[in-house]
């Protein structure tokens, strides 16, 4: 967690100009029956650091896209009320004009990459701003150094982990030298130590003018005292605002292990090579029926690669995998990869392994009833993830692989996810979870597997790991608040 030593050099007063102002704003997508939000009002001053938080699907990301003018022009949405940017009607800005002043990092960084390598992506960003070539080189070098990405200059972006992609996307936004930086859940795919370092680094950026930072965030506890204000986004009216918000880590109920003696899954001496590069080396482990295991480690250590290998998306070069008569159920980091149906309810129903009563129960517990007729691609990032998790839970495969299931989820959704996973374990399912959320890991896991540089480096009982500070540090992990940790 970021400590209270973080300092803010920019002082916000009533004389500080308002640069973003929403008055009585109502916004509705063309195919929706009701608005995302109705008659909301708030303002943001130059140099402020503001968090937008609230339930998944409440419209936080939509607010960002109204600020950067992506909406309503690019979605045919219906907008009522007044939005002004720098005391000017937002609609008066020419297409692309506002992007010189407001830079955005989206939830899924893959959606904003256009070029193959880090260097080419940064150059492409500057070309769109009509920056001259001599200046390009200087700005790219300075930004790579600032963000700690110099070693990745020539790297192909699609070979990077989700967390590293997020850092590259943020670097490209900073490269634009904007006045406002919009961040849509920037910590969601970062390991705990990298997330902490990201916040600390963002706090120390030196700009020749006040940089306004607005972030959509569920995990306010990871930001410490970074934000000046937090705006609680909901469906209507003036939005409640908290000054100097600080959150403690959320708590979960005590869980009783349901591990049985029977082995449900086993991997032996797994090696994976792709294009001459070794991604996984000599990995062996097993899961028993009823066991919940968390796979943790630094960004790029091989966590998602291992899950893809287990379910057959990546071909192993050597080794053996045993998982009974059915392939494991798999929920990837990008849940859209699973969708095959035209509505959320049809997606949950698709497997035919669950009756209507069970489907209705899953829909209710995952808070999907209000979007049951929506297309799975049209809902929020957090809702997409819950749809994919619901579909795989409905499929009832005896081994489940969940890659970052907590990403984009609010507190209520996380607790319901906790209960659903716990219930499946009690039914004898074996579950392997990749997550950077150490609070969730400490609450849900029986065992924690550590991975680094493509190799398994530890296999710990949950209550033992948090006492091993040096092991945690080596794997870019931070013990959750309340866990026992000592040297």
TrEMBL record:
Transmembrane segments: none
Keyword Oxidoreductase: no
GO MF assignments: ATP binding
Matches recorded under SMART domains: AAA
CDD domains documented for this protein: ABC_cobalt_CbiO_domain1 (cd03225)
Family membership noted in the UniProt record: Belongs to the ABC transporter superfamily.
Protein name (database record): ABC transporter ATP-binding protein
